[in-house]
Amino acid sequence: MTSPTKVAEGLTTVPDGYDVREVEQFLYREARFADESDYDSWEALWTDDALYWVPAGHESADPMQQMSVIYDNRNRISTRLKQLRTGRRYAQAPQSNLRRLISNIELLGGRAASAGGTDLEVGANFLVLESRARGNHLWGGRVTYRLRRVDGGLQMSYKKVVLVDSDKPIPTMGFLI
Amino acid sequence: MTSRMTDVEPPNLGVQSNSRVAPLIKQDKVHGSLYTDPAIFADELQKIWYRSWVFVGHESEVAQPGDYVRKRLGLQDVIMTRDRDGGVHLLLNRCAHRGNQVCDDAKGNSATFRCPYHGWTYRNTGELIGFPFFKGYNGRKLDLAMGRVPRVDSYHGFVFGSFAEEGPSLTEHLGAAAGEIDRLVRLSPQGRVELTAGWLQHETGANWKLLAENETDGYHPQFVHGSIFGVTGSTIGPLYSDASTAVTRNLRNGHSENDLRPEFRKFAEPMRWFGTTEERVPNYVAAMRELHGDAADQILIEGAPHVMIFPNLFIAEIQVFNIQPVSVNQCIQYSTAVQLAGAPELNKRMVSQCVGSVGPAGMLLADDTEMYERNQLGIESLQPEWLDVRRGLHRERVDDNGFTIGSATDETGMRGFWSHYASLMEAP
Question: Which of A114, A148, B154, B219 satisfies CB 3.0 to 4.6 Å to B159 for a cystine?
Answer without folding.
Answer: B154
